[in-house]
Amino acid sequence: MTQVFNFSAGPAMMPKAVLEQAQQELLNWQDQHTSVMEVSHRGKLFMEMITQAEQDFRQLYAIPDNYKILFLQGGARGQFAAIPMNLLNKKGKALYLNGGHWSATAAKEARLFGDIDEIDILEQDETLQVKALDLRDIATQYDYVHYCPNETISGVEIFDIPDVGDTPLVADMSSNILSREIDINKFGLIYAGAQKNLGPAGITIVIVREDLIGNARPATPSIWNYAVQSKSDSMINTPPTFAWYLCSLVFKHLLALGGVKAVEQRNIAKADLLYQYLDQSGFYRNKVAKANRSLMNVTFTTDNDELNAKFVAEATACGLQALKGHKVLGGMRASIYNAMPIEGVEALIAFMRKFEAENRG
Ligand SMILES: *Cc1c(COP(=O)(O)O)cnc(C)c1O
Questions:
Q1: Does the Cβ of 174 fall within 6 Å of ligand 1?
Q2: Closest Cα to residue 338, out of 14, 22, 23, 58?
Q3: Residues 275/157, Cβ–Cβ less than 8 Å
């Protein structure tokens, strides 16, 4: 079988070691002679598994004790609604920083629940970049400020955490959670659908500072109420047990690799290799300013739709899968999340060189 590298933006590739372990344990988990997906979520072994998963995640991301970690359902989109239901209840206003598709979509959903102000934070000249932001003064009038530090579609990443003073900062980290070290103390709430960097689709992680729990509006459904979920170990209803188990294996795997610091170094090495190649090429172009180039989603184009389509078809035939860019942007996108080995990036660059040589006008 030829080696395949999967550059899908999400659901994305899983670490091979994790899939192998899951395969090995599939019919006999913890000597139960049954799989993990067939046991009670309230049983001793499952409870031990999730307790350890939370500890491992807390250790990996250096999450302080005054933050709760919830394992919920409904994806990032579920949180687009849950966040205003839980947090938009004192001043009744929130500020959303618009840096692309996902932050704009989050703002649109939040408008169902209250008064939302939006600031456009991108500027485009030769390249696409994030403006310098001075938010400390205006932030005081809001219950929270929301942003998306990694816009998965455009490949724009914000490395400097916005300074919003004492106002809670809320971040959609669906596509860059655990990709590099961050100071959790700077955030009120961080959330992420699992299917890019944590595990399979179906589970959503919310890291929330304790003082932000307990203010949900009265009509908040129990499954979206952080206080209720926090009191019930994220098990107000049957959780996605198999997805949770796979996340637990990913956490252990990342710890064994040396934790987030080591993973960050690998991610920087992978992204540098690809961007350096793009920058010296006169054939492909990445349109994001250097300071805002995503470590996770690398977008590029030949500026010719026909050539782009040919690129994607030939790359797929060579085992380099899912490189087609998002439909709103066109071009190509290589998603190189934690699970992508450097060999995948090297194989992509080798293919790009060959394609360039064969198709340069
Ligand atoms: C993929 C993605 C989403 C959507 O996640 P769902 O779990 O499908 O709701 C939201 N935000 C970002 C940044 C994403 O990358």
A1: yes
A2: 14
A3: no
Regarding pTM above 0.90, the answer is yes
Q: What is the percent of the chain with per-residue pLDDT over 70, rounded to a whole number?
A: 100
**Residue 102 is a catalytic residue:** yes
Q: What pLDDT score does 2 carry?
A: 75
**Residue 313 predicted with pLDDT over 80:** yes
- Asked if residue 360 belongs to a known ligand binding site, the reply is no
Do 4 and 316 touch, CB atoms closer than 8 A? no
Q: Do domains 5-15+258-358 and 17-257 have the same CATH topology?
A: no
Mean predicted confidence (pLDDT) in 311-317: 98
Among residues 207, 172, 191, 201, which one has the least CA distance to residue 101?
A: 172
Q: Cα separation of 116 and 112, whole Å?
A: 9
- Give Rg (Cα) of the chain: 21
Domain boundary assignment for the chain: 5-15+258-358, 17-257
- Which residue's alpha carbon is nearest to atom 5 within ligand 1? 76
Nearest-angstrom CA–CA distance, 32 and 41: 14
Is the confidence at residue 1, as pLDDT, over 60? no
The reported pLDDT for the residue numbered 52 is 98
Which tens digit of pLDDT belongs to each residue from 212-253? 999 999 999 999 999 999 999 999 999 999 999 999 999 999
Which of these, 355, 356, 345, 329, lies nearest to 155 by C-alpha position? 329
Is 58:71 a contact under the CB 8 Å cutoff? Answer: no
Residue 76 CB–ligand 1 contact under 6 Å? yes
pLDDT number for residue 361: 76
pLDDT at 56: 98
State both tokens at 50: 């999730």
Fold of 17-257: Aspartate Aminotransferase; domain 2 (3.40.640)
**Which among 342, 334, 351, 333 is positioned nearest to 281, based on CA atoms?**
351
Fold of domain 5-15+258-358:
Aspartate Aminotransferase, domain 1 (3.90.1150)
Closest ligand 1 atom, CA of 152? 15
